[in-house]
């Protein structure tokens, strides 16, 4: 891994230390150039004309995402964000009264709210898969829950927004497939951080965002839907891109995953997402995952030197999202203190509202979240830890 080059490509690291990669990572320069270059073309040529000129590059966005997750380009829809990708998949499943959804303790509130909405509207059931002793999905419990034929869907995040375990998604996928149950994987915090192969995982649908570990622009995300399922799912929203009007009385929905998209989109950001995927692939996802794990492990180790901190990470396999709470300071207080350092340090606060089941079970209202990426360094981690030690003495 050429860390020096990664940092040259990331000019933001000169004036700040960014540990909010689980919020939105710093975009590398090649990605910024693609976005700004396209905006300039739009200003010079006109939006439609600029898009026509880069039709091949726009097609390549699907191919690049396909390479990233081992899917076919026609199984990918590019949409505004991970939530919209997830909504398009979830609401299209047409769950019926009595159908049960299995999810994890670590479920993201943005996904849990739609479960509750369909429970209210249609009478679906929500069942929570208990954790095992490591704090990850208990596979034995999942296998038992899957014996009930009312279970229609397994749906959970690969990595929770507040840290926690990297879920054993391949084993979960194998169990769901064996039971003939759909598996919708929220890989929002996983894509760009962990190698992802939808064939190995066996998920039927997967959702992701551009701005986090992929280091792409904000306001972009994507949805993967397995080819054989795609045509069986009717999107809840249709427009003249997702479908075509054949006569005054008939329309036809397109066959590929782009049936989940809509026509108007931020073309510059879409190209930026493609550039971010290409950039990540050029670094090597496996190499980045190794480095992220190494840095996160170093950070967790160094945080043990700060007496006032309680580590809050669970799981057999932990991700680059490192969480902790401070015995004497609130998480926003920690965030403000770090942001006020001579060289600003960005961390974030994850509140109970984002991952309510998990946080309530652990009696937590909030945690501080320092999420490392491959372009971070040990020296930056030392600066973070030194600032936290100074905070305890202030
Ligand atoms: C696990 C998880 N799922 C989904 C989302 C939603 O992503 P987006 O804001 O791109 O819709 C997030 C955002 O933090 C997340 O952490």
Can you put this structure into words, describing what you see?
There is one protein chain. With 394 residues, the chain is of the alpha/beta class. The chain has two domains: 29-282, Aspartate Aminotransferase, domain 2, CATH 3.40.640; 284-393, Aspartate Aminotransferase, domain 1 (Alpha-Beta Complex), CATH 3.90.1150. 41% of the residues lie in helices and 19% in strands. It has 15 helices and 17 strands. The protein has helices at 3-8, 29-45, 47-53, 55-69, 82-92, 109-122, 139-145, 169-179, 198-201, 227-230, 267-283, 285-303, 331-339, 356-361, 378-393; strands at residues 16-18, 76-79, 100-104, 125-129, 151-157, 159-160, 163-166, 182-186, 205-209, 221-225, 243-247, 250-253, 309-311, 321-326, 344-346, 348-351, 366-371. The strands form five sheets. Strands 2-10-9-8-5-3-4 form a seven-stranded mixed beta sheet, with helices on both faces. A four-stranded antiparallel beta sheet has the order 13-14-17-16. It has a two-stranded parallel ribbon with strand order 1-15. The longest helix has 19 residues, at 285-303. It is globular, with a radius of gyration of 21 Å. Bound molecules: pyridoxal-5'-phosphate.
Segments where pLDDT lies below 50 for 5+ residues? none
Instruction: Let me know the CATH homologous superfamily of the largest domain.
Output: Type I PLP-dependent aspartate aminotransferase-like (Major domain)
Structural class: alpha/beta
Report the count of strand segments: 17
Shape: globular
What is the residue-averaged pLDDT?
97
Question: What is the rounded distance between the termini?
Answer: 38 Å
Which architecture of the largest domain would the CATH scheme give at its second level? 3-Layer(aba) Sandwich
Q: Largest beta sheet: what is the strand line-up?
A: 2-10-9-8-5-3-4
Amount of helix = 40-55%
What's the domain count? 2
Number of helices: 15
In the CATH scheme, the class of the largest domain would be Alpha Beta
By CATH, the topology of the largest domain is: Aspartate Aminotransferase, domain 2
User: Rg to the nearest angstrom?
Assistant: 21 Å
- Tell me the fraction of residues in β-strands, as a range: 15-25%
Family: Belongs to the class-V pyridoxal-phosphate-dependent aminotransferase family.
Pfam family, one: Aminotran_5
Cofactor: pyridoxal 5'-phosphate
Protein name: Aminotransferase class V
